[in-house]
Amino acid sequence: MFSDTTLAQARQGLKNWFATIKEAKSDDVSVDKRLSTISDLEVKPIYTPEDIKDLDFASDIGYPGDYPFTRGCQPTMYRGKIWTFRMFSGLGSGEDTNKRWRHLLSEGETGLSTAFDFPTLMGYDSDSPRARGEVGKCGVAIDTLVDFEILTKNIPLDKVTTSMTINPPASVMWAMYLAVAEKQGVSWDKIGGTIQNDMLKEFIAQKTLMCPPEPSIRLISDTVEFGTKYVPRWNTISISGYHIREAGATAVQELAFTLADGIAYVQDVIDRKGLDVDAFAPRLSFFFDSHMDLFEEIAKFRAARRMWAKIMRNRFKAKNPRSWWLRFHTQTAGCSLTHQQPYNNIVRTTSEALAAVLGGTQSLHTNSFDEEFCLPSEFAATIALRTQQIIAEETGVINTIDPLAGSYFVEALTNQIEQEAWEYIEKIDKMGGMLAAIEKGFPQREVANAAYHFKQQVDNGEKTVVGVNKYQAKEEPPIEILKINEKIEAEQIKRLQEVKQARDNRKATQALNDLRAACQSEKNVMPYVIEAVKAYATEQEICDVYREVFGEYRDPGYF
Amino acid sequence: MDSERKIRVLVAKPGLDGHDRGAKVVARGFRDAGFEVVYTGLHQTPEQIANAAIQEDVDLVGLSCLSGAHLYLFLEVVRLLKEKGAGDITVIGGGIIPADDIAKLKEGGIKEVFLPGVPLNKIIKWVKENVKPLRVV
Lengths: 559, 137
Known about the structure:
The structure holds two protein chains of two kinds.
Chain A: H1 4-23, E1 35-36, E2 42-43, H2 57-61, H3 77-80, E3 84-89, H4 94-106, E4 111-115, H5 118-122, H6 145-151, E5 162-165, H7 170-184, E6 193-195, H8 199-206, H9 213-230, E7 234-235, E8 237-240, H10 242-246, H11 251-273, H12 277-280, E9 284-290, H13 294-315, H14 321-324, E10 328-332, H15 344-358, E11 363-365, H16 378-394, H17 408-431, H18 434-440, H19 442-459, H20 488-502, H21 505-520, H22 526-534, H23 539-550
Parallel strand pairs in A: 3-4, 3-11, 4-5, 5-6, 6-7, 8-9, 9-10, 10-11
Antiparallel strand pairs in A: 1-2
Helix pairs in contact in A: 4-6, 7-22, 9-11, 11-13, 11-17, 13-15, 13-17, 15-16, 21-22, 21-23
Chain B: E1 8-12, H1 21-32, E2 36-39, H2 46-55, E3 60-65, H3 70-83, E4 90-95, H4 99-107, E5 112-114, H5 120-130
Parallel strand pairs in B: 1-2, 1-3, 3-4, 4-5
Helix pairs in contact in B: 2-3
């Protein structure tokens, strides 16, 4: 990319620069000190053309919309369409969440994203002994289609897309969404959204667990096949790195494990369903973290696009350029927020959101400053949304596509992250793929080691967290936080009992029996799940069928 | 004769919350500090935790919850330990816990609550100063 003259000048200039610094005789010189990203990747004091001399403009950087998409998937990126302001939210009952959703939509969010409570995430109803104390506490409680109807009341499913963070019971929540769309008179080819539906990262990091890996993957491939046939605008998986990162992984690990998970899913759909890769690959989507080291994140997003394009075209021989696209949603890093001096979190979220935008995300959630205490208050969630709007409208960063392309530092870092991520992917391939690697405990141990290493770095002062190990406050005045209505649990249980009494129990039981038979066969379970939710079978009743047929998985407790 | 008995700790995740980064980091910190550590893994009921604490003969139980269900879950563990005659086991907790709830937890028998960001050596120091090995050798 550079002439020999330029490179020679760069080398000489660097020597001069170092010599000048040494001569300066100042104590305040940290060029010799090892500084690193939050993932502990070493960062040099200065980058020059030398650092990216082997880059080829056309094949490594190029243009947005062109393979390998380093600069963005869509040719026009934000000049054509701003990223979706998609705020992850859910609390209490369907009514509570519907209210919050309508507030966020009226304040300018452009896509919905559903946070469910733990019983729902884990496939338990609100009246399960396991749900005690948990109902509605960290998201919305959904037991039956009735709750889902309340959740989506007055939300036009043909006009807004909805993401649902749900994993083992993803088929159930999706079935409910499809049933509600039908009731609204919206055909399935018109609705758009995403189900997270990524079990591999559950085993590695998020840990909403139900069935063992093999049947979990079968359920995922069933949903991919169903979506490919009947719900063409739906992203049936959100292959996620966010949770892996939140569990303590480095940026490289987040990237590598996510792409390795993606490889496993693509391979399974091809092997199990016999689908052509181009039939379903364009609807695969991704979900990444955006953490505190600004440039590491930007480089990570660019490396991600470049790597997935290569994987899809070269490894899986996809022919449709849309199959080569890595489209992703981003969430700012929850684990970077502090309990101490919580208003500082607004600043953290802003920086992380900026990194995501400079990295070319298609969709973004920004955390609220009070999330170290409880679910976001309306006040805090609105500020988080405004953060995105201010970046979009006032900072000018959207005026040009991939503004950091060509930066010696950012391109060098993009290369380095890509290189190190390939090394992990090769290692995982040698183990037999991600499923085998998970069985061996490999990604889990890598993540646990990285988490411990970072904690040690913060505890010994090597890494600073403002307000925590530096600039601590003498006093921490209390802030107003959201409190979940304690009556929710009893109200949900009452509603659940009413639904069970009102429904045609024979129909529900028959639907569950049919589902069981489908699970025991090679049939796609989705049509049976849809029938079951329409018959007002509960989420747990359906998941109990899964548990019965496929078995239950217990967390092995590596630490 | 060195009769220094190691402090034995059960680190546990009650309820459905799967966020285990903190619990695992603390478990490892405890192990590096010389305590004997048993980690229950995820999705334990309060009953399972109380039983494990007694079976494993621990001096201390550390509970972690980030899902907002800590008031019910932590206090239920304390209640069950008492009911099973193991009320002398110290119970501490951590996670996403608002200030108002800390007082309620302490009133209910949780000896100390450690919030996000606390250095490991602070927890370890607290344990060394406040928890004595219960078992008779």
